[in-house]
Amino acid sequence: MPTLVQLADLGSSGRIEHSFPCVTWPSQCNVLTGTTADQHGVVANGFFWRDSGKVEMWTAWNEVIQRPQIWDTIKNRQPNLKTAAWFPMLAKGCGADIVCMPAPIHQPDGSEDMWCYTKPQEFYGTLLDELEHFPLHHFWGPLAGIQSSKWIVDSAIRAAQEFSPDVWYIYLPHLDYAAQKSGPDSDEAGTALTQLDGVLNQLVNRFENIYPDPITWLVISEYVITPVDHVSFPNRLLREAGLLVVMENNGLDQLDFESSDAWALVDHQFSHVFVKDRRPDIVAQVENVFDGQQGFQIVLSGDARKTLNLDHERSGDVILVSTPSSWQAYYWWLDDNRAPEFARTVDIHRKPGYDPVELFFDPATKSIPLQPGLVKGSHGAPATDEHQRGAIVCNQPLLKAESIRDTDIHDLVIDAIIS
Questions:
Q1: Alpha-carbon distance 225 to 29, whole Å?
Q2: Which CATH number fits domain 230-375: 3.40.50.620, 3.30.1360.110, 3.40.50.720, 3.30.9.10?
């Protein structure tokens, strides 16, 4: 990655000490707020809202973040500075001055019409005229590729020309895809590095032509994807223990949230197990189910969740963490012939958990193979080893130590901007 190396050679670089859980929404919020999940309340890439009994995956607005964010801090301390939030996952409704974030319109039949939330609202019309729609199908799923990150860069360049924000947060998702599908050390993952560096080169060169003053670049990893060769099924184990209940719908097994004593919202290498009425006896049963089970390294409940920054009202009553070489699939059916219809589709909203098998959509059958063993990379487990710590690169000598906590990046940026 010559562009990234050049930035590091101009300034400084180091490693990031990622806070658990090491997945997209919490990781981004750690950086944006300078706090961990038990404080900002974003405990996974989705939520189970106990009061309504509903699962919400990937659709929440910025209001779910319970702490001020970096653009709020900047606005309070230096109101004349203009901020831009370009594709951080909970940006809809945030306090940044200029915003762009996918916001597809979901139709009753399950189809989607592409659109983006932008601030100013009319700016997506400008982007649509000049760049066409954001390529959502290249953002996630079997067609995921460099096109989405390139569109993000192209649109950021256009916004820089139009609005000249002083501070940018730009999320480029490209390194997720090949590393999960083929493994982080695969040839495909190496190709992804080269592709992303080309996009970074375009961003750096164009921004430095647009802005008259020197730019401070800070590039950070959200998390590190590690090789996996094992998959666990917490919901199947809960079902076999008599704690999870399914209901039949046209011969298919649907998860019955209301009747289940316990079920798991899975997210890569960890899951939240929600217990009906938070009953202590059921919590004890759940812990007993997973104690010593292959693929699970940590099982925590109650105050013990504090050790993982997940002692929060939104968290599950029991937290399950995978071993570094394993991940967790949301499946609850015991016979693939009884899997719900959305299991074989790219459907990130109806599945109560993250499903990387969507990367393996089969054009011949026009469906997702129910083969979670295909997945070769995952993330989310506590970053305890050096190889689980991502990179931080700056073209200025801002970094004073070999490593930095993700929650300290907020103040690092603020101090660099307001000095």
A1: 19
A2: 3.30.1360.110
39 touches 30 (CB < 8 A): no
| Backbone conformation region of residue 151, classed left if phi is above 0, alpha if psi is from -120 to 50, else beta | alpha
Q: Say which residue the tokens 């831009």 belong to.
A: 84
In this structure, the number of other CB atoms found within 10 A of the CB of residue 152 comes to 24
Q: What are the domain boundaries of the chain?
A: 2-225+386-417, 230-375
**Rounded distance between C-alpha atoms, residue 215 and residue 206, angstroms:** 11
**What CATH fold (topology level) applies to the domain 2-225+386-417?**
Alkaline Phosphatase, subunit A (3.40.720)
> What pLDDT shows up at residue 110?
59
What's the pLDDT at 22? 97
Buried-exposed string 369-393: b where 16+ CB fall within 10 A, e elsewhere? ebebeebbbbbbbbbeeeebbbebb
pLDDT at res. 63: 97
Long-range pairs for 243-247: beta carbons < 8 A, 24 or more residues apart: 243/282, 243/285, 243/286, 243/289, 244/332, 246/332, 246/333
Which is it for the CA torsion 178, 184, 188, 193, positive or negative? positive
Q: Which regions of the chain are under pLDDT 70?
A: 106-112
Q: Distance between CA 139 and CA 161 in Å, rounded?
A: 24
